[in-house]
Records
---
Amino acid sequence: MASPLIRCFSKIGRQVSRPWSVCQHGLRNRSTQPDMSAEQAAALGVTYPPLQTYSEEEGMMRDAVKKFAQERLAPFVSKMDENSLMDPEVIKSLFEQGLMGIEIDPEYGGTGSTFFSSILVIEELAKVDASVAVLCDIQNTLINTLFTKLGTAAQKERYLSRLSTDMVGSFCLSEAESGSDAFSLKTRADKHGDYYIINGSKMWISNAEQAGVFLVMANVDPSAGHRGITCFIVDRDAEGLQIGKKENKLGLRASSTCPLNLDNIKVPGKNVLGQIGHGYKYAIGMLNEGRIGIAAQMLGLAQGCFDQAVPYTRQRVQFGKRIFDFQAMQHQIAHVATQIEAARLLTYNAARLKEAGRPFIKEACMAKYFTSEVATLTTSKCIEWMGGVGFTKDYPVEKYYRDCKIGTIYEGTTNIQLSTMAKFIDKEYDH
Ligand SMILES: Cc1cc2nc3c(=O)[nH]c(=O)nc-3n(C[C@H](O)[C@H](O)[C@H](O)COP(=O)(O)OP(=O)(O)OC[C@H]3O[C@@H](n4cnc5c(N)ncnc54)[C@H](O)[C@@H]3O)c2cc1C
């Protein structure tokens, strides 16, 4: 099934019809925006274009998703938050638009686009709803990438074709007693002939309510420590898999977060993803990339909140003036806008480094750390700028404020990001 975005971006079919009018030049570059397509940059003879330069495909993707988020997602956001439930229509439309298999090869029904496009998609979705952004983020930056990089031909055929069209995946590393210290996990996988028996439990598993497949990190040889950790593909209908009651959370309420119980689950040897004992490497590698996705989520969230609050300050009148016109307000707004811009540059730079095959781990940590801080500052300030109404559910800023807190916690807490950065900095000064 060809989705609209696949038709939009298919490398073979550049001339085919584009479903959305925004999939055209012109609308992309308003004069006030620093954005530029790679083609425009080349035409101007710019050899080193600014970071906010997009390929034609990236620009179209971003604009198309912006429109999609406004039209197909925004109407559901408040209800989904209130009910703590992702609307199945939203998930269906993400698949229909090709947003759940952005980098998956079209051979498997994917959109065949790039990591940077995934980052732009996550940013645009998070402007409207961070819960939907994290669903898309985990699917694209963790699950699909693991299958693409490590899967056998049979595993790719079976799972990538579903992950791009109708199946959500979950990444299962954390346990009740192993969070930041993830590789002290206790879940065991014991080999019996050509299958494994998995026992243990997982905590905080995003998207578990909807997932059809779980990538479970379990230790096949605890005496080898973290070198026993192996990645297993566990289907939702596996006997012995229980998905617990979802957490009642402060924010990201539409995103399901559940514990899992793994009770004598029989998994065939062919469901090992990658090599035995390499699970810890895969988890580290994926989370390094995934952090750029979380940075994009926090960046989009901050921008989305700012976009809600600033127009209010331009309309609200006190002391006979727009509140935007008070210098004290202007300075705060300009300060926050600068922080968001810096967050965007850190995020895009980390994504471009990763895509270029250059070292990016320190930069990914910086991006995740900084964007989380900026999202916290922005959402807090936006509530203040709106006064009493900002504190109510009549406006969406209070939701952004609740949703942003997770940025400092998952895929490595802020302390863990800072410690990783410090390790790199320390090495840089070795002589
Ligand atoms: C909404 C949500 C969704 C999640 N989704 C997933 C998922 O899909 N899959 C998955 O596997 N996990 C998921 N997680 C788990 C998440 O990655 C962990 O919560 C996170 O790694 C932190 O672990 P912890 O909660 O056990 O906190 P802890 O590790 O107990 O940390 C508590 C505090 O101690 C600090 N700390 C710990 N160790 C150090 C140290 N060495 N130096 C300095 N400070 C330290 C931390 O920074 C933090 O401030 C999710 C969590 C949440 C809340």
---
Amino acid sequence: MPLIQEIDYGTPPSSADTMVTLTIDGYEVTVPEGTSIMRAAMVAGVKVPKLCATDMLSAFGSCRLCLVEIEGRGGTPASCTTPVAPGMKVSTTTDRVRRIRRGVMELYLSDHPRDGFTSPVAGSSEFAEAAGLVGLREVRYGTGGVNHLDAKIDESNPYFQFDPARCIVCSRCVRACEEVQGTFALTVEGRGFASKIVAGQDEPFLTSECVSCGACVQACPTGSLIEKSIVEVGQPEHSVVTTCGYCGVGCNFKAEMQGDVVVRMVPWKDGKANHGHSCVKGRFAWGYATHPDRMLKPMLRERITDPWREVSWDEAIARVAAEFRRIQAAHGRGAVGAITSSRCTDEETYLVQKLVRAGFGNNNIDTCARVCHSPTGYGLKTTLGTSAGTNDFDSVDHTDVVLVIGANPTDGHPVFASHLKRRLREGAKLIVIDPRRIDLVRMPHVEATCHLPIRPGTNVAVLDAMAHVIVTEGLLNEAYVRERCEPDAFADWAAFVSEPRNSPEEVEKVSGVPAALIRDAARLYATGGRAAIYYGLGVTEHSQGSTAVMGLANLAMATGNIGFPGTGVNPLRGQNNVQGSCDMGSFPHELPAYRHISDPGVRAIYERVWGVTLDPEPGLRIPNMLDAAQDGSFRALYVQGEDIAQSDPDTRHVTAGLEAMEFVVVQDLFLNETANYAHVFLPGSTFLEKDGTFINAERRINLVRKAMAPKNGFGDWQITQKIANALGLNWHYRHPSEIMDEIAATTPSFAGVSYAKLEELGSVQWPCNEQAPEGTPVMHVGHFVRGKGHFVVTEYIPTDERTGPRFPLLLTTGRILSQYNVGAQTRRTANSLWHEEDLLEIHPHDAEQRGIRDGDWVRLASRSGETSLRARITDRVAPGVVYTTFHHPDTQANVVTTDYSDWATNCPEYKVTAVQVTPTNGLSDWQQEYRDFAALSRRVEVVPAK
Ligand code: SF4
Ligand code: SF4
Ligand code: FES
């Protein structure tokens, strides 16, 4: 398999409709008006030498290598900065331009290391290629003069290095940091020969504002900025295009390989979600796949305090099947269940829910989306008719007003954040509703017009107040509402939000947001042009999560902001395949594509294909499984790729439920916290080791391609198939494409999906069927999926979780750029350099009252439990609010979160917990006890499998 070389056209494409025809070196070529001569030449098959140009960045024209001659014009213009014109006749290889290019290249080489044969950095760089294209044989000036050859290499970043000796100051890195990433961490300092690239205030990359997205590394033509893996391992020799295994943005990458060793991950320019960009996780944090902590052999034990014993796959699978059957025989069909993974592929998730429904004969299947975006499914289905975001990411290019609520895109969804920041720099307005001053509120060249620093738990009140302003000030899009929405439901809603108790002035009292700010935000959203909503778990993880999602849909419908590019209600999904795991039927009441299990017509489809009779009764949700375990009616659980002991709320409730079960099977990469309560451990495979699909936050079905053989021996879908066959189900899938064929055959919104189509188009967004054979970027165009849009009255009901004298502060939780979810993967990479431990953010006023200094250990206590962690004093949080992440098992932040949950979906109320914070000396007793227990539980007896 060859290394896939992406074509670099030198400058970005033009989107003009008018076409221009010209001649380049005798070849006629037709391109859109505004295209550069350089790009037109590439289209015509003529490669012009270049250094400062690349098609990811706007043209700059500094290196003078790409000069051409144009008939009838004097001079030698740069082809990267000169646009085409009708009838133009361009020559790219005249003696004159060749001579000038050689002179330029000679000057560069006179101050450049000559290690082309010995360095893995130099040999394959664009710089070396340009030297070859120019045809330089000798450098007249030598390297004896003043030069930069002794400049010190900056190796501070764990993933890439900067060697100033190789730098030609083309500023591609600086422009990539600005234009692509939007961080503005790099600058050119000094002038002329003394000019140099500096990070931050001329400091090491690691301590600067650099977010390690790698855009500069990708842009660098000389290897001055280069991945350390290339320096250490050498150049890759083949590559495989696949999809990131981290967040719901769904970036496509080229996994560049030497044999079965990943050398680097390069963002794929044709990736429709990322367009060649990435963040630090996807580009660099893949080392967990080969981390020594990975478990590669199946293991068994009788009791959770016994050491693990390695066994053969046959023995492990036989034990799993025998125990599930024994427990069902003794305690009933409903005594067992499973949890699917939002990190696994669609095909794997589909098989786990099929195993439960067809093999266990019940519907006790649930997924981690229960604890994140289940309210999205409920809220958007109720109002609009589909449980998914409405628009594609590219739609943001058409947005005039962006409302970000309960999301922190620069940390949680960084590549989308870069796209969004670009649009904001172009002039779109921004409203942020968040208790914290997230980075987007103010960062280089981006400033929110309104930041509503909401008191946690009052989203619904604030959305109702915005609706109040829109209705009472006559800012509705009446024609849209009349044409597209149910009139009675609209009238009820409009009357409700118009009530004085929903005015900004009243809502200010509960939300803490000044009424004027709410009015400004509402007016801007309603009248600022095309408005798009992006939201995250700060909306869903509340006792009124579903209500808030419906409140957002109400706002969008009332202002006519659904069904066009640049508008919509768009959930930013957390894990790579949380959309897919929901789509694939992971909820206990829904078969794939959100069709209710009680619908006999839908059941009949699956009964025919699966050859079984399905139970029409919805099964248990995760919290109900845990409750039922404690009352003895639920006894065995199969958990694929989830760590509920760390990620789910009220940890003690979770662990008590797990401990009460007779039999727990965990399938994962590592012995995670849930595995401490397991009796069988089945080693899982990483996204690099299997074929399949992930579905991102914009409903995009992306191919995941195997880059290396599974180190554990099998893809996760094969392991589930083994269990199914041991239970007598007789499955014979030979490849995940056959599973997708079954999904397409049984799911109308996937009817047009096949691996052949995904190979052909790169990716498609569902619905993809006869009506939309190439997928659906924007939903609800012309009419809503449910017919008429349905307004819902969204009464604000304060959470029962209240502050008081014992617990006077409100805790809210979130995530950080460098870590991912429970941290199982990212903690096993150098990303921990940026976030070694979870910290508690506390406002200076609250810290001072408690005698807490920055870095002190503090005890964080709620009515559910307590934990200890270090404090960070910051005014990013408002007085009365504290904030932490949950990436580290030592912190166990979920020990303090409560069992309150969304009224409609049971999604936990992670974002509001009444707490007290007091100084302490170190880990709490509970943390210490848990550490001891986990160490005991993780012992592995090294008895090789027979
Ligand atoms: S580090 Fe690379 S991209 Fe940046 S200016 Fe130097 S040569 Fe150009
Ligand atoms: S933004 Fe998300 S999908 Fe893209 S590289 Fe980062 S973690 Fe991966
Ligand atoms: S590539 Fe055109 S001036 Fe550098």
